[in-house]
């Protein structure tokens, strides 16, 4: 089973900025943990981080024939990107939305996700471990 | 580590009604799986299902000195119960909100959770496996 | 044909309090009239009044294998109970929502019913006779 | 007792269009059933269908000295006609609003009735039998 | 003069949880103070705490012939319970709504009370002494 | 100077229905007073009452070459008719909106006029004399 | 009959600023015209202009035993002053709200008057002649 | 292929009023152009203009067995007529909504069409040529 | 302990106007009762009434070094004055907001207080005795 | 006449994904048809598809001196891109917004276009033929 | 060039209250700095602070023939004063709105300025230096 | 002190398009003026303009170790970019938001900035000189 892991805007700063909100684990460390965990369970993972909405869309299009699952942390595009939503709906790969922080406890504009309705589901507030739970879910299928 | 698993209104019907939304696994089967999984990872689990908002609050109060974690599927009370929210905040046990279906893809009134801001986080749309992911998170701590 | 008649919060006061809004017929008198009318038309009726949201949900679950119809006056829970709505949808028994007073002519918060969309329909403003019309509808089926 | 039955816009198509929403009984058949039922209970009924808001208002004015009751299915004017509401309030004949389909389960703009607050009450979702229930209510007075 | 004092959900935790919001005086201590103060001024007080919306409604119904006044801290039901509002309106005993914390300075959903319009008035933010002020008001009548 | 006086829906009932809101002077009496007052000040008046939105629009179109002023009481169409607004804007005759009752003190849906922005101005709450004031304004020009 | 004419904020600039909105007649000229017109019809008029909300309230209180009518152009306080509204309601002198410009055709925040519901009615968009129409209305009583 | 072209309120003034918004071509000229264009492409067109909402509904009902397509410019009824929407949905003839001006650039109340969701689609802002494009679309089918 | 008592707009009319809403006790009588009650409990009270928002702000500034408590009935400024709110926050003297009537049972615009979030708390609906309860609270500190 | 045709996000998938919504014609096929149609009518067309908001803006800037017309299907950016709107307004080339599906019949967030007010007009719901109609409009100028 | 500097409500407390929000520089010190800076650049400055909305309006009227620029910190009146907005628009002197704190980062009711649309522009969050920047802008003209 | 100056979408057109809104000075000219002014005050400035939201985020990330201040004109992304807001918050460099035009006087969607709450403050409506004022503020620190 092939899983595409997409990290949205500002996640390249993970572990280096605002650790009280996002924790102290860097993005590379997260990817390594996911890679290892995936390897143990016969999942092949690819990773991409971009601050560009269009690049995230391009990436989804690119894996349409390769991936059987997508894990996406859309960052700020969660709340504003109809285009990304349309991309998820179009490629029709089972997708899980992950948020490191508990967005429900933050600003009002973070309380609505444009993407969630076209995803399988959402995991938020679980720290970087949220990615691991998402990967675990694919294992359980 | 002790985990209280609270099932809110109508979850006693799990697996027997509306399987297209909630799946075909019964509540007893879910609890058994969680019990077994917990046992493998040194977690002690208790379970309660109630259709009564007050009974769910009572249950939270009752485990305040026993539990180190709570997993709650508040069902319809997710969107309407300030009292339950206050109970979660008051007992101050790390709590994970779980929804079997992807509430973000359903009616507008299901898109806002009164409880999520006082929980650690939320897992929704992952089927009964969502409970398992929540339990897994406690294992990872 | 078996009909469950559910009276929600404060309806135990019917006929004894606020007669200008709710009329002077008591709940026992209403139930008696429905019983008699039902008996004349081969309908078997059961009755339950409760001020507890959870008890109303329990009652719906309890009659899932007995009733072919439900008549419910959800009182104040009409406007606030997602849990009761979910119960009606889950048991999937044809249900008629009845209001004694014309809720459309009262406070704004009474103008929206969370339950109506999962019921067959609604009868409001017809006084206690509204229950009789609902029963009559089941006779006509 | 004299009853005016007013059918609003598009109800002339009843039974011939969108039977999944409105059923297969034609307007003439409904009127015939009401006429017969009325005749059995000493109610004299008149009927009018119009697609013109103004014609429905005219009709209400015209029966002010004849009718002791009005049954109106205002169709799409339910949600948009202050003028029709004012007419019902002005003629001050007890009026019952009837909807064949369960409007609460349809589009958001159908969830609010401008007319209901000045009517005795509302019956919706009961199919063509809703008219019969309304007539039955007048019999019960 | 007989006064019913109703404590809503989570108030059993008073003085033991979140003292920065609700203070360090326990519910028993509050009740004792009220009892003593009442005794000095010829008021007879009864007390009830419940986390169940229905139990609070039942309690109001039960004292309809005994109490000349009600003091209620509805906790989280303040903002969500039409059923409790209807109960207060129905029993028609002069009722004062009390909040320990200054709800106006908290979350937006706490800024509107469904109950206040059917009460005599509201006292909020005065700590446990708010109950005493409410009792004092009955003395002044 | 030629003035068209348009009376909207239900105004044919003026003086005969709801006198507490609209007064006891009939529409004929109002028209007579306006005719006389106009005659004294070299204004020629025509009058039309209709319950049909389309008929009011037709009437505006018909007087486009005759009238130098329009006085309109749009009744319930005030709040709902974009078509009538467009007609007033299209014919571009100075138009005064008149309401007999003080609409600002009535239901919320009466507090916004779709027509007022394309009129010269509005006179409301002045009773039938509001028409006279409107006529007086044309005299003052 | 004694009439108090109150001019609110910025009306001292009338005729000297923004003539395209408010015309070229100065406030003194308006007052002179009203004085003369009043004198012809046995109305005694007093005038006050102030930019201070409190001063307008004081003025209403001061004439409570002298005036039988009030004409007020509340300017910007129309949309923001609950205090002025309360003053009009308290003194209970028949009051007419006048606006020189057609406020319905201006910014959205000008489309709602806090004062109008406690006035007899409103005249807007009629230029300075609106004051004259208001005075004329008192003559007609 | 038979096409019904319906022109709504005020379109009889086309080309004669407000040419800056609606252009200088008259309705007769538009109809002539459409007729000719239709004739060249084997489309038979009928035309109707009315200021009456009810008449537009009647017209739709009348062509239910004749027309294979409808082109409608609903004018002001676009934003207010649930009844017309219901008629379009009921007759179930492919319908194109046309607006001469770019309604998206006008007042807020013109930005939402009640009819568009039950039409095939919408063409707006293209001048009278919008009708021609609509006709062209039917040719392309 | 020094207490400043501030009465906002229209309270000079207390006891003389609208006694059904505000009671029959005059402001002087209220102040006398508070003075006497304060004297019995070692509280020194000063009083000010003004219809001017600015004067109330000035008064708060003036007592910043004298008062240990403020009791304010802001009248209509409750709902509209950010400036008064800022003054209360700036002087940082414990302040209690008092309303004679039960504002929660009145017009919608009275249901939100801009000042309450920066006050200790609010007492409303308790009649003039509300002031006494506020004073009593300072005694209890 | 030179026409720039801009295809927004996800339109590269046209004809290959979600054919029930967007049809089975691919983007290349659409462009070919437009090219051919343009060639027949002396229009020179260029084409660009991008998933990047910034690239669409860049493209508009790039053709400012070449194009006399723009046809844009902004996809998901229709509802979220103020930057794209500003670009259209800045380059001031007549622009037509095209949507393949009938956006008015889809999710609420698709019902408002930020771009339409600065375009000539909009064509939606006409399938890929909508592009052709837009091109046809330029021919008609 | 003459510049009027207007300080609104509570700014007399500047530097003495809430220094974490507004800084530790007093109003006198700010005015001195502005005076000195102005003197260096040929600007003549006058200063006024008032807690009275009306006094700020009066001040604007008073300088209409003297000032070529106005710098105003309207404090709490920013969000509530239509009257002050009208004054700024009426005197038509180029006006800059200054806020010491970053109002965008504070309560929701501070996020909208009624005055800004009639000012040249706004400077907020720059501390007392914001006044200096405003003065600097006038120098740059 | 190092200052990064970021120009958002469409600002490359500055001085060449819509000069009535944005003035006639080109972006190069602005940058030159800032460079010179900075050089005079020991500020080192870098400049970047991009129409790509992602590129602006990348740029912020890139200067995290170089810049002590950021001046950003986010153009249309001001109102729509949560991702850009998150970037500003993450890099935690003091940032000033600049708008050339007075956005408060433009369309409603321009009246709310997602970025302002995480910036030091905002300068808008001051023309290209707004950049200079922002630079000046850094000099004053």
Structure write-up:
12 copies of one chain form a homododecamer. In chain A, helix 3 packs parallel to helix 4. Helices cover 35% and strands 18% of the residues of chain A. Chain A is built from 5 helices and 5 strands, in the order βααβαβαββα. The model of chain A has no long low-confidence stretch (mean pLDDT 96). Chain A is α/β, with parallel strands linked by helices. Chain A has one domain: 3-Layer(aba) Sandwich (Rossmann fold). Chain A is globular. In chain A, strands 2-1-3-4-5 form a 5-stranded parallel β-sheet, with helices on both faces. At the F-G interface, strand 5 and helix 5 of F face strand 5 and helix 5 of G.
In short:
The structure is a homododecamer of 141-residue chains. Chain A has helices at 19-22, 27-40, 53-62, 82-91, 129-140; strands at 2-7, 44-49, 69-73, 95-99, 121-124. Chain A has 141 residues and is α/β, with parallel strands linked by helices.
Q: List the helices and strands of chain A in order.
A: EHHEHEHEEH
The chain pair with the largest interface is: F-G, 26 and 26 residues
Domains of chain A (count): 1
Assembly state = homododecamer
CATH architecture of chain A: 3-Layer(aba) Sandwich
Helix content of chain A: 25-40%
CATH topology of chain A: Rossmann fold
Number of strands of chain A: 5
| Unreliable sequence segments of chain A | none
Secondary-structure class of chain A: alpha/beta
Portion of residues in beta strands of chain A equals 15-25%
- The total of helices of chain A stands at 5
Amino- and carboxy-terminal Cα gap of chain A: 10 Å
What's the mean pLDDT score of chain A? 96
């Amino acid at each position: 089973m092939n899983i595409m892991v997409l990290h949205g805007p500002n996640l390249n700063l993970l572990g280096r900025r605002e650790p009280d909100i996002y924790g102290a684990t860097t993005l590379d460390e997260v990817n390594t943990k996911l890679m290892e965990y995936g390897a143990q369970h016969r999942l092949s993972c690819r990773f991409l981080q971009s601050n560009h909405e269009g690049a995230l869309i391009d990436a989804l299009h690119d894996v349409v024939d390769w991936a059987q699952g997508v894990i996406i942390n859309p960052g700020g595009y969660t709340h504003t990107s109809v285009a990304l939503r349309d991309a998820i709906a179009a490629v029709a790969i089972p997708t899980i939305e992950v948020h490191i922080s508990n967005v429900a406890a933050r600003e009002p504009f973070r309380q609505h996700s444009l993407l969630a309705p076209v995803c399988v589901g959402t995991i938020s507030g679980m720290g970087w471990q949220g990615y691991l739970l998402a990967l675990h879910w694919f294992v359980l299928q």
